[in-house]
Specification:
Elements: E1 4-8, E2 14-19, E3 27-32, E4 37-42, H1 50-61, E5 70-73, E6 76-83, E7 86-92, H2 98-116, H3 122-127, H4 129-139, E8 140-141, E9 144-145, H5 150-153, H6 171-182, E10 198-211, E11 217-231, E12 237-242, H7 245-254, E13 268-271, H8 277-283, E14 286-288, E15 293-302, E16 310-320, E17 323-332, E18 339-348, E19 353-360, E20 364-368, E21 373-382, E22 386-395, E23 411-418, E24 427-433, E25 442-456
Parallel strand pairs: 10-25
Antiparallel strand pairs: 1-2, 3-4, 3-7, 5-6, 6-7, 8-9, 10-11, 11-15, 12-14, 12-24, 13-15, 16-17, 17-22, 18-21, 18-23, 19-22, 20-21, 23-25
Helix pairs in contact: 2-4
């Protein structure tokens, strides 16, 4: 086996070095929560010794505190993920691509869950040794990560499990499967047919907000994703455009007039492997051949011009050591024809709360001792509407007189607002082109904003 090739000049100086052994996974271990080895798959004979698993157990599993998922012991590096009740560990002695290894480990965990039909438990691994070894062989070949997705592996693995294997019966099927694995679009199989060709895009945003006691925004950002459901025949080419500021500024100068709606600045984004990144870098158009079924097309994050769905105004008055008055006003900041659903406001109270009288204009509110808070639930919250909750609190006096002062935890909210985006992002166009069949696809776009870490200090 050739480890590397060097090209040197006549004086012995290195001109070119090509290392063929870097970036390889030496072995994958699956251990239980006690650090006992359940499965060992050694891809490189020189990588794994008997003491490797014991070293991981001693320095990671038995350690009181582990802050990093990467642990180097001597010349050996351990990269691990906790998948339900087991550890999945990659072992290597090379300077490996860490992001690629973690992506592979998470994909292995997803495939194992799919085949086991449940979470990954020690008993499942022990009962499915052969199946587990076959899955590990498909996921990693000679130390190099492969396309370890369920759709790609399923036709090859015929062991009994929650996922039924698809046996290849003819040479034609084998050829098609080889083309799927090694072709330009391994995530999409050939000969997919639907009577009704449909594509769905769900723009889902989580709003993170932290407001100080004087009403200043300490943090306001949106983490969003585009979730796809694709039921299209053949090998369709999809194009998907957003109101990205870079594109709309360019069109405003060199192209057609800007469409309605303000442009937004996307701080960072990540895409599914099907997206052509070169095309996106050139004209910011998201072009892709989609996988069949459900998948996450992209994730993004914005921090500018965030529209806050709900504004909370809390007023807390401490009349005495045993009496407290609470008034909380919540106003929706979206259009009247929209509605917030599943709205829940958690208003913290002191731990020594003895009696709580609550008055509210809408919804249901009650004091919950388990969380030391008033939980106010509003099933349907119309847009441009304000609701107020008032409460009179009686506190029990401390017998020893050494009770700690109330720390005043923040008010938190949970909600969902359909057809609304806090970032202002919207889909400008969605095109589907299938050259052979040339059908007209039915397109659906939906929006949803929900609470992330949404807090108001009091």
């Amino acid at each position: 086996m050739i480890g590397a090739i060097l090209i040197l000049n006549s004086r012995g100086e290195v001109l070119v070095t090509r290392n063929y052994r870097g970036g390889m996974i030496g072995a994958i271990l699956i251990l239980n929560s006690r650090g006992e080895v359940l499965v060992t798959r050694n891809y490189r004979a020189e990588e794994l010794s008997r003491g490797v698993a014991n070293a991981f157990k001693m320095h990671v599993v038995s350690a009181k505190e582990v802050r990093s998922p990467v642990k180097s012991i001597g010349q050996t590096s351990f990269l691990f993920v906790r998948a339900d009740s087991v550890f999945i560990v990659a072992v290597t002695k090379y300077n490996i691509n860490v992001a690629l290894v973690f992506e592979t480990l998470h994909r292995i965990a997803d495939v194992l869950r799919a085949y086991y039909g449940s979470n990954i438990e020690e008993e499942d691994v022990r009962n499915n040794f052969i199946l587990t070894y076959e899955l590990l062989d498909e996921a990693v070949d000679w130390g190099y990560a492969q396309n370890a997705t369920l759709e790609t592996i399923k036709p090859f693995i015929t062991q009994k499990g929650a996922v039924k294997g698809e046996k290849l019966k003819t040479q034609q099927q084998v050829a098609k499967m080889t083309n799927q694995v090694t072709g330009a679009s391994p995530w999409r199989g050939p000969d997919i047919k639907y009577k009704k060709n449909e594509i769905y895009i769900d723009i889902i945003e989580s709003v993170n907000l932290l407001v100080s006691t004087d009403g200043k925004k300490l943090r306001a950002d949106v983490s969003g994703s585009a979730q796809m459901k694709v039921y299209l025949s053949g090998m369709p080419e999809c194009k998907f455009g957003l109101n990205d500021k870079v594109v709309m500024d360019k069109e405003g100068k060199n192209g057609p007039t800007r469409s309605k709606g303000a442009a937004i600045v996307i701080d960072d984004c990540t895409f599914h492997q099907c997206v052509r990144l070169g095309k996106y870098d050139t004209d910011r158009t998201i072009s892709f051949v989609p996988p069949d079924g459900e998948f996450e097309l992209m994730k993004y994050r914005t921090t500018e011009n965030i529209e806050i769905p709900f504004h909370v105004t809390p007023i807390i008055k401490e009349h005495s050591k045993t009496r407290l008055e609470v008034k909380v006003a919540v106003k929706s900041n979206f259009r009247r024809e929209m509605n917030g659903v599943g709205v829940k406001i958690k208003i913290p109270l002191p731990k020594n709360t003895a009696l709580c009288k609550i008055f509210t204009q809408s919804g249901k509110a009650k004091y919950t001792p388990e969380v030391d808070a008033i939980v106010w639930k509003i099933r349907k919250f119309p847009g441009d509407t304000k609701y107020i909750l008032g409460a009179e609190i009686e506190l029990s006096a401390s017998v020893s007189g050494t009770q700690k002062a109330w720390t005043r935890p923040p008010i938190s909210m949970e909600f969902q607002v359909p057809m609304f985006t806090s970032s202002g992002l919207y889909v400008r166009f969605l095109k589907v082109l299938e050259q052979k069949q040339q059908y007209q696809a039915i397109k659906w776009v939906r929006y949803l904003t929900q609470a992330g870490n949404y807090q108001y200090r009091i």
